[in-house]
Amino acid sequence: MNYLAHGRLFVGYPYFLAGTAVPDWLSVVDRKVRARSKQARIVQHSDEPREAAIAAGIVRHHHDDDRFHRTAEFNRLQWEFSRRIRDHLSDTTGMRPSFLGHILVEILLDATLAEQTPGLLDQYYAAMENIDPAEVERVVSEVAGKPADRLAWFIGRFIEVRFLEDYADDEKLVYRLNQVMQRVKLPPLPGAFQTLLPELRAEVTTARAALLMDPTTTRRGRVD
To answer: Does the N terminus or the C terminus of the chain have fewer Cβ atoms within 10 A?
Structure first.
């Protein structure tokens, strides 16, 4: 799952919402810093409400990711997208198509949620504007057991740039994907890749309900 899919239910709880974004933020800022559920479960019982909420959001992120990646619909789409991308790019190495197949299901689900729920993206960013990035960095450093340097800075940039809005536009999405490609040291995508995106969007839109359904639990988790 990506940012909006993780946080869509929690825009009324800014620090819990921030916690749901922490693992994805860290994957950009410093992949060596890991906010794991085991330590977060301890910190979520803190008497300090903001600290507890951030940690609980981290736990929720990992729970939702685990559920999402085990759904039949995610695995079907990931495989199908990887195949189409491989054919489109004539890329037989497998690494770039399989990586893209995975993240595009997640990214396009966020785009679908934003499109089909007017105002949701604005509510998401408005909630993020109500957090103290330095406090999030402090709590994440405690959970990770090492300094989460530059996390507060990146949260500020995340709120300012609002790159989740770019997911709705094929050309802008290719630009954002190429930023990810550069970060993980994979070859960039050609501009023509955007011609494949409309059909992939349609697939994710159709599969939205199945992707978000949780057959194991109906609990939303702690949000206080």
So the answer is: C
Question: Which amino acid, one-letter code, is at 108?
Answer: L
CB count in 10 Å sphere of residue 170: 18
Nearest CA to 123 out of 168, 174, 162 is that of 162
- Output the pTM of the full model: 0.92
Angle between helices 72-89 and 49-69 in degrees, nearest 10: 70
Burial class (CB in 10 A: 0-12, 13-18, 19+), 143: buried
| Nearest-angstrom CA–CA distance, 83 and 162 | 30
